[in-house]
Design brief:
Distance between the termini of chain A: 34 Å
Number of helices of chain B: 7
Shape of chain B: globular
Helix content of chain B: 10-25%
Largest interface: A-B, 56 and 63 residues
Helix content of chain A: under 10%
Order of helices and strands of chain A: HEEEEEEEEEEEEEEEHEEEEEEEE
Radius of gyration of chain A: 19 Å
Largest sheet of chain B: 5 strands, antiparallel
Oligomer: heterodimer
Shape of chain A: globular
């Protein structure tokens, strides 16, 4: 482990809610652009710059490709026996959800990949591994709806219809009864000077919402967020999102949206997601946006 | 029969004298290409001259990856993607066979039918934001930096030429786009759209309107561009008749319309962003919209003479040279603008007597957002306040960030957009006579 990324990562963590950052550096043979899942001292699942899912085995130091091709929005089942992900198509904006079974021992595919749903993003496997929730494009190009369907294929159920923008960070509560999901801020005009800025009063934000997995009313839990990712922790106890108006200040909140504390990250730090119960995974990136070290922050509530 | 005649006369009278009789036809709108909810579009798309193909640069957020801008050419009738590749700022040739764009090899010209692509790496430094004309039978490319060059077999012929400076516009103007015949350009002067000659200063037309990219119609008579709606909630398209000196407004209640481009037969392609649809549309019959005199649409002109007291009445007017950064938390360029200005300050302070720098935030932004960002950016530039009235007196009313230069309390110059250290050094050195 090189000292500089370790020191940098440790110094960069401020106002952490509770103990300890752990830091793991990645060797040069691992060209990770995003960490998908971290099993400390065992395996790190990551996406390469080319969009391939790979595994780094910490014990052997070997990096193995799991899934080729340009894929993104990967969800692994709790038992590590299933992977659901998004794959592009011919046009730049094409995307569909695919699924493949994995051998939990090796992390490698144990069956053929198949297409599960068209025009979908951000899939999330339920805790029991039987259902997948994902975001489906609406026909207007404006927003997405939250959809649930069986992993084995079959009928889709719309759980939350026609959100005002795209959906991200879909998460199941541990009992599988409730879904949390983020609605992204509207796509901005780029470059903003070319559009003529409308002014701060017209700025719109993302939000985090909650709905029963069987459908029903959608509740807004966090009404104003700059970035709705990573959202709800796997144990359902903690929400993390970027504060409105400040993409580097992150709010740590309870599942009802009440704030507990904040985290401030450095420009080189990028939140990768969750691991374990409520452990935040933070990637320390270099100038090329490749991850050179991974740190974790345990946000679980102590009794 | 008598009753029928009377009824007909009555109907005619009502029709002639009722407001309905003065109603113009409305344009006809067609949705031509839908975006996906995560797809962002860079600036705007360009419709091909025949209206059958659309080219646009877009990116879609995928996981945590930095989105890459990809140009896509779509055949509208079938929806088929004819080509896609990394790049931005595509513009069609007048014959509709090729596009020029900023690609991986610099300035690229691609033939969409044959797939042939020619790169001119040396032309990349002259700027992007291209527009394409055919002048005296030759292909001419104009760039954002007011540079232009001809093409020979799709390759840039250098050295380039520069848009001439005009006293009427105080210089070349900024961010020009060229007419199809290569004679006229639309450009920006103090934020207003101005039409003038590419290489002469004849017939300068100041529309008095603050708008986005302004595209010439194929007969060079009209320009179309988007502007902010009167209530500030979104965008509408203005069509200026340069000959008749009138303005038509195309507005949609449920959303914004942006970045129009003309077909040869007078239809207008544009982006629509609303709660009911996101994507590209085509409007025909836009000249059926009612026209009003151009002067009535003009934004209030910024006065030539503006003082510190008028813009920052709560802050004592500094003596000497003072630079103010007008910025907003919602602008993605603010952090960069602060950083570069701090570098410029540190370079200039030892060289300029009585020199100072301040920053003022958009008064419509939430105070919590402003203070949080200033803390996170670790700004060492003192903060001053500007009111909404003060902001209206600056070019920043339509662009953030903006940098203002004051001399003994009088505004002497400004720069729109985030300025690099090199830009600031060159500008201020030149203005202040620093060697």
């Amino acid at each position: 482990m090189t000292p500089r990324p370790l020191l940098h990562a440790l110094l960069a963590l401020t106002s952490a809610a509770s103990a300890g950052a752990q830091v793991t550096s990645l060797p040069p043979n691992v060209t990770a652009e995003q960490v998908i899942q971290l099993e400390p001292s065992q395996r790190t699942w990551y996406l390469t710059r080319g969009g391939e899912l790979s595994i780094f085995d910490h014990a052997s130091g070997a990096a193995t490709r799991v899934l080729p091709g340009r894929i993104w929005d990967i969800s692994l089942s709790t038992k590590r026996d299933l992977a659901v992900f998004v794959k592009g198509g011919e046009a730049a904006a094409d995307h569909a959800i695919h699924i493949v079974t994995l051998d939990p021992r090796t992390g490698l595919p144990s069956g053929a990949e198949r297409r599960l749903a068209a025009a979908g993003d951000a899939p999330s496997i339920s805790p029991d591994g039987k259902l997948v929730a994902f975001a489906r494009d609406d026909s207007t190009g404006v927003g997405q709806s939250l959809v649930v369907m069986p992993v084995a294929g079959g009928k889709e159920r719309v759980i939350a219809a026609a959100m005002a923008s795209s959906i991200r960070a879909i998460a199941w509560t541990p009992d599988g009864r409730t879904l949390y999901f983020g609605v992204n801020p509207p796509v901005p005009c780029v470059p903003e000077w070319s559009c003529l800025p409308l002014g701060g009063g017209q700025q719109r934000f993302g939000s985090i919402r909650r709905v029963s997995a069987s459908g029903g009313d959608v509740t807004i839990v966090v009404p104003r967020a700059q970035n709705v990712f990573p959202g709800l922790s796997p144990d359902g106890t903690t929400l993390v999102y970027a504060a409105a108006g400040n993409a580097r200040r992150w709010v740590v909140a309870n599942p009802d949206g009440s704030e507990r504390t904040t985290l401030t990250l450095q420009p080189s730090q990028v939140i990768q997601g969750w691991t374990g119960n409520a452990t935040l995974v933070v990637g320390e990136t270099n100038m090329m946006r490749a991850i050179r070290a991974i740190s974790t922050i345990d946000l679980s509530r102590r009794p | 029969m008598k009753h029928l005649r009377a009824a007909a006369l009555l109907l005619a009278a009502v029709t002639l004298h009722s407001p309905l009789s003065t109603l113009h036809s409305q344009p006809r709108y067609t949705r031509i290409h839908r975006l996906t909810p995560r797809e962002g579009v860079f600036a705007y798309a360009r419709i091909s001259p025949d209206g059958k193909r659309l080219v646009y640069a877009s990116s879609a957020m995928r996981g945590l990856s930095q989105p890459e801008w990809m140009e896509t050419v779509v055949e509208l009738a079938s929806g088929k993607v004819l080509w896609t590749g990394p790049g931005i700022d595509a513009w069609w040739s007048n014959d509709g066979t090729r596009i020029v764009y900023a690609g991986e090899g610099g300035v690229a010209v691609r033939n969409i039918d044959t797939g042939e692509s020619v790169s001119s790496p040396d032309a990349a430094r002259l700027g992007d934001y291209f527009s394409w004309a055919t002048r005296d039978g030759r292909d001419l490319i104009l760039t954002i930096q007011s540079n232009y060059y001809y093409l020979d077999r799709n390759r840039a012929v250098l050295p380039h030429a520069k848009v001439s400076s005009c006293a009427a516009t105080g210089g070349t103007g900024e961010r020009p786009l060229i007419s199809r015949d290569g004679r006229r350009i639309t450009t920006f002067v103090k934020g207003n759209i101005v039409v003038r000659g590419l290489d002469d200063c004849d017939d300068v037309v100041d529309t008095g309107i603050q708008g986005g990219k302004a595209d010439f119609s194929w007969d060079n008579r009209y320009i179309a561009f988007h502007a902010i709606k009167g209530d500030g909630t979104g965008y509408e398209i203005r069509i200026v008749d340069l000959k008749g000196r009138t303005v038509r407004t195309m507005s949609m209640a449920k959303g914004s319309v942006l970045f129009p481009s003309w077909t040869k037969d007078g239809r207008l392609c544009f982006r629509y962003d609303g709660t009911d649809y996101r994507g590209f549309m085509m409007a025909s019959g836009v000249l059926d919209l009612p026209a009003t005199p151009m002067s009535s649409s003009a934004s209030p002109a910024l006065p030539e003479h503006r003082t510190w007291r008028e813009m920052f009445p709560d802050t004592p007017s500094p003596e000497g040279t003072h630079v103010v950064l007008l910025w907003a938390p919602w602008s993605a360029h603010s952090a960069y603008a602060f950083r570069e200005l701090e570098r410029a300050r540190d370079w200039l302070a030892p060289r300029v007597d009585r020199f100072g720098v301040s920053a003022a935030a958009d008064p419509t932004s939430a105070e919590s957002d402003v203070t949080a960002q200033m803390r996170d950016f670790r700004v060492s530039i003192p903060r001053i306040t500007i009111s909404a009235a003060g902001l209206r007196l600056s070019e920043a009313r339509n662009q953030m960030p903006t940098v203002l230069l004051f001399r003994d309390g009088t505004l002497v110059d400004r720069r729109l957009g985030a300025q690099s250290f090199d830009d600031l050094r060159a500008w201020l050195s030149g203005t202040l006579g620093i060697k």
